[in-house]
Amino acid sequence: MALIQCPECGKEISDRADKCIHCGYPLNQDQRFDERYDDREYDDQKPEPEEYYEDEYYEEEPYQPPVLTTRWVTLLALIPLIYGVIRYVFRMPAAALLISLIANFVFLIIDFIEVGKDEEHSGAWVYWGLIATPLYIFFRDKKIDRNLKHFFLFIGAFVIAVILGTAFSDGSSKSSSSNSLPTSVKTTTVTTKASSFQDIYNTYILKMQNETPRLQEEFKNEAKANTKGTSGLADILSDKTDVLASLYSEGAGEMAKLIYTSGNSYDDYDSWATKLYNDGYSKEFDKLYDLYSGYMDEGEAAFDESEPKTYEEIYNEYVEKLQETTPGLIDEFLSEAPGNTEGYSGLVDIYQDKSEVLLDIYQDGSEEMRKAYQKHSNGVYSEYDDWRGKLYDVFDDERHKIYKTMSDYRSG
Questions:
Q1: In terms of Cα–Cα distance, which of 181, 215, 211, 234 is closest to 366?
Q2: Dist CA 66 CA 63 (whole Å)
Q3: 68-82, 229-243, 288-302, range with the lowest pLDDT
Q4: Residue 131: its pLDDT value, please?
Q5: In this structure, are 163 and 94 located in the same domain?
Q6: Which of 74, 271, 286, 356 could lock 185 by a disulfide, CB 3.0 to 4.6 Å apart?
Q7: CA distances for 172 relative to 169, 185, 202, 223, angstroms
Q8: Per-chain mean pLDDT for the chain
Q9: Are 137 and 76 in contact (CB under 8 A)?
Q10: Is residue 267 part of a domain?
């Protein structure tokens, strides 16, 4: 509080008084103001009364809307791509769908909260997200960002997901007319883990080449003790070639696993498995067969007096066996698959067990054709090889039915 002089009596009074306490002279606001500022001392500090009360001293700052992050709507737009990558890379369509739905819900709720920070943009349009994510992204871009960059990002991610989904379907299913190889036979041999078809091919070619000399020695030793003539020699040959067939089948099984574990196509598997069959099993088998033929040329065929069947008769007999056996093997696969607890590897083992039955039938028929070839004095090897190839084609078709059952079961 300051003291001023009364304009009437000149005595000092409070600058807040309405009138002089000495003489009763009334004081208005301007008078109190003027007296407070002595012209002699405060001329350069005294503000004009009207300026002191101007509205600009009480003006509020304009409303500034919060800055909204686009991190979550960007992740929301990439949901289709997340689904496509998980489905194609890991071959897990059900898991891909579940993960995508959970991620979509989480990102949507978080972005809902983010948009709700701004009262201007918290209108009813945000609830489009409860109906369809693309519509939510569209209206969000249009209302807030004034462009459609996230919406177009969503469309691009969706297109990529469709492409990946198509690739997954092509890799996991082939028609029954596709060329393929004898299927994997389950053996007790420890499989060699490899990262490519080339690695598996090299490993099993070497295994078969190393095994053949031992099998040849065993054949010679057992042939000397043979007392069953041609039939006995054929049985010995069959036992030795079964070892090569098991090695080949094991290698083909390792290649089959790469279709799912490494994302390779069925055509890649088919090409490499055929190469393993031709360069490995077929060449090493010929070495054993040449040894067998040498014993036959020495007169072993004279021990067998039975009338040989024709190639066509053997072919028809074993085609019927193969075709009658396949439906039962498929039923066995479907009954054992639900109890599998080892994932894809377990399904492959079940598939190998069933395919091995068909492979045994094919090998029995092939042996019958060999016997017929040896019985014909004028037999032509190319004719025998052609009929054996026809029988193999039937085996391959029946084997592929089991493979397709496994693929359909895993996709379902």
A1: 234
A2: 10
A3: 288-302
A4: 61
A5: yes
A6: 356
A7: 5, 21, 25, 46
A8: 75
A9: yes
A10: yes
Q: Are residues 297 and 367 in the same domain?
A: yes
The last residue of one of the domains, among 13, 37, 58, is: 58
Question: In angstroms, rounded to a whole number, what is the distance separating the alpha carbons of residues 165 and 75?
Answer: 20
Structural domain contains residue 191: no
The 10 Å Cβ neighbour count of residue 26 is 10
Q: Which of 11, 27, 58 is the last residue of a domain?
A: 58
344 and 209 inside one domain: yes
Map tokens 């069953």 to a residue: 228
Transcribe 72-132 into DSSP letters.
HHHHHHTHHHHHHHHHHHH--HHHHHHHHHHHHHHHHHHHHHHHHT-GGG-SGGGGGGGT-
Alpha helices in 10-92 (DSSP H): 29-36, 39-42, 49-52, 71-77, 79-90
Mark whether 155 and 130 lie in a shared domain.
yes
Distances (CA, A) of 251 to 148, 210, 275, 401: 52, 15, 11, 20
Q: Which residue has the higher pLDDT, 393 or 64?
A: 393
Structural domain containing residue 40:
3-58
pLDDT at 54: 46
> What are 384's two structure tokens?
């025998």
Residues 218 and 331 in one domain: yes
Select the highest-mean-pLDDT range: 87-96, 129-138, 186-195, 396-405. 396-405
Residue 91 domain flag: yes
Is 367 in the same domain as 401?
yes
Averaged pLDDT for residues 235-259: 86
Residue 306's pLDDT band (boundaries 50, 70, 90)?
low
Residues 279 and 353 in one domain: yes
Number of folded domains that form the chain: 3
- Whether 248 and 335 map to the same domain: the answer is yes
Residue 65: inside a domain: no
Residues with Cβ within 8 Å of 184's Cβ and at least 6 positions away in sequence, in order, are 249, 250, 252, 253, 254, 256, 348, 351, 352, 355
Look up the pTM and report it.
0.37
Banded pLDDT at 319 (limits 50, 70, 90): very high
Q: What tokens appear for 187 in the block?
A: 């053996």
Residue tagged 């054996």 (tokens): 388
